[in-house]
């Protein structure tokens, strides 16, 4: 392996570590030789992920914490610091949408409850900010590190229905660029902050928008595939290549970037 892509011996924290995207990233980082710590709220689900990693020969620990609770994040940081002693990579993987903050035939924009709108903003935006405030101290003190946020196609092109999610992911992209500049100007040019922007995957959070109960495509699902030149939904595993690259020294001059992984969705305007 080219040494620029070698991640062996590094350490990583992945929030949302038991989710679809977070767990896949955690497993692939571990297979690349990274010691991973997965964070989330569901202890049993986190244990399942770490057990799977260990069974495959990787190194993993887990810690329960809420990305919206700074005290719990500080406790997680202390635990992980005691286990690893250092941190090289932070993946802000916690996030998602909420059907209660999504317009539909039965829920108008004017009737979305403020708390439901705010919960989507908080999870996606404040979750990334608070986690970076806590774990980013590792990087500020060591003068090196890598942060990867999870943006979305909704940040590039505001999507119908997902009003809160689209705005939140646009904020994540903005925060990614702001944080990249802040770390470089105030701490070290060896700290990089980037994001990946997945295209359309079938997850528990958006399946209701893409598929009908019988498994056939909704009208929205048909429109998505029509605008995706590759003509299919993505798989979570297809996000990992970009993540491994961004974590490695091969991406040492990549900073403040939001990388689309979307089957060409963002490149095609339908004509």
Short description:
This protein is an alpha/beta fold and about 270 residues long. It is built from nine helices and seven strands. A seven-stranded parallel β-sheet has the order 3-2-1-4-5-6-7, with helices on both faces.
What is the approximate shape? globular
Strand order of the largest sheet: 3-2-1-4-5-6-7
- Kindly provide the radius of gyration, computed on alpha-carbon positions and rounded to a whole number of angstroms: 18 Å
Work out the number of β strands.
7
CATH superfamily: NAD(P)-binding Rossmann-like Domain
Strand content: 5-15%
Major beta-sheet overview: 7 strands, parallel
CATH names the topology as: Rossmann fold
Q: Given the helix and strand composition, which structural class is it?
A: alpha/beta
Poorly predicted runs of 5 or more residues: none
Write the SSE topology.
Elements: E1 11-15, H1 20-31, E2 35-40, H2 43-55, E3 59-64, H3 70-84, E4 89-92, H4 114-142, E5 145-150, H5 153-156, H6 163-186, E6 191-198, H7 207-210, H8 219-227, H9 240-247, E7 258-261
Parallel strand pairs: 1-2, 1-4, 2-3, 4-5, 5-6, 6-7
